[in-house]
Amino acid sequence: MSQAFSRRSFLAGLAGFSALVGCAPPPAQTEATAAAKTGPAGTTNTTTTPTTAAVAAAPATTAGATEMVFHCREGDLSNHFVEYAKRWSAAHPQTPIRMETMVATNEYWLKLAAMHASGTIGDNVVDISRFFPEMAYKGLYREITPFIQAENFDLGQYYPAAVENGQFDGKQYCLPETYQYQAMLIYYNKNLFDTAGVQYPDTLNETFDGLVDRAVKLTKASETQFGYAGASSAHHIIIRSFGGDVLDADRKKSRLAEPEAITATEWIHDLIYKQKAHPAPDQVENGSETNMFAGGKVAMLQSTLWTGTFLIPLVGGKFNYGAAVLPKGPTGIMGNHSQSDLVGVTASSKNPDVAWQIAKFMTAKDIGIEKVSLNAGGPGARPDVQTDPGLNDKMIGLKEFQAV
Prior knowledge:
The chain is of the alpha+beta class. The chain has 2 domains: about 5-30 and about 185-325, Periplasmic binding protein-like II (D-Maltodextrin-Binding Protein, domain 2, 3-Layer(aba) Sandwich), CATH 3.40.190; about 50-180 and about 340-390, 3-Layer(aba) Sandwich (D-Maltodextrin-Binding Protein, domain 2), CATH 3.40.190.10. The protein is about 35% helix and about 15% strand. It has 17 helices and 14 strands. It has helices at about 5-20, 80-90, 105-120, 130-135, 145-150, 160-165, 190-195, 210-215, 235-240, 260-275, 290-295, 305-315, 350-360, 365-375, 385, 390-395, 400; strands at about 50-55, 70-75, 95-100, 125-130, 165-170, 170, 175, 180, 185-190, 225-230, 300-305, 320-325, 340, 340-345. The strands form 4 sheets. A 6-stranded mixed sheet has the order 1-3-2-4-14-7. Strand 5 and strand 6 (about 170) form a beta hairpin. Helix 1 (about 5-20) packs across helix 10 and helix 9 crosses helix 10 (about 260-275).
């Protein structure tokens, strides 16, 4: 069992961890400000050298064709891009896409910045909203507002908050490819709840005290079964639920020493070290808490919407599970953190008109739905994707997300 930590040590550790929240790769591989959802309801590799993925089964590139280079992270998160690059290339033999997938860690952005500085970057880039501002500041992207205005392109097909995630300094640089709130869903193992005779979490009416009560009842130390997991990696979300935040409005001063942040941190600390209902870092098995949940070792997992995609093959029918949303905290606030994956046109592209068409293609409705079946992360950043009946039946957690 884990040695007990002092609350002061735990606070210090989580303060350092806050800067890294959300940086982990997807579990299948083992923005500090909250944005309001204003639209319709709705492992590590050892090299940073790009690897080129085949884009089609065609015998050769069409004579005189111009290759369009598309950069994204490697692994499951590129599955849909690789597949749709093949489809684009088959339909547009004069401008086929050459995929360049790169290491799926923070080194990805270091590589992008280096390629931009050296003039070797391609035509399209996949980014994440929390890293995007730095890339835009460095001049990596071409503003897409002129393309939008020239064809009267409807940005209303995406969630407004997701569109804003692709803006910098008042200008639009990227289209949103995904949209979710970080770590505001609670996936729960119905079989473990039923066996223990514990009621499922009550969506939109749950409390943090109720979560602790359920977690304690569902913890079995003799079987290394925990009632709850995912809280320590959602530190900032829980702080916001308790009425605090990590940084001030100007993002220059820490707020971690304020009473609300301390109370939230103590809630996490006690869940791990007092109630012992949440795995400590040295108790995480099989590479991640998500894998522990999929293996029946965790009754409730606090995680993201796109975790629902990865759970489909990970659980694979071993048990029944559901989802609930994170409770509102003592001050009536439901902590959140909006994040989007984004597709942009590089400032260096020699064919920006084509790159713009590719950005639209990679953020359209069909790919936004199909990517879930391809185990490629969360659904598209569009109401017509996230309200799709078939997708809602397939992806547990999506209906609950729409209810927020």
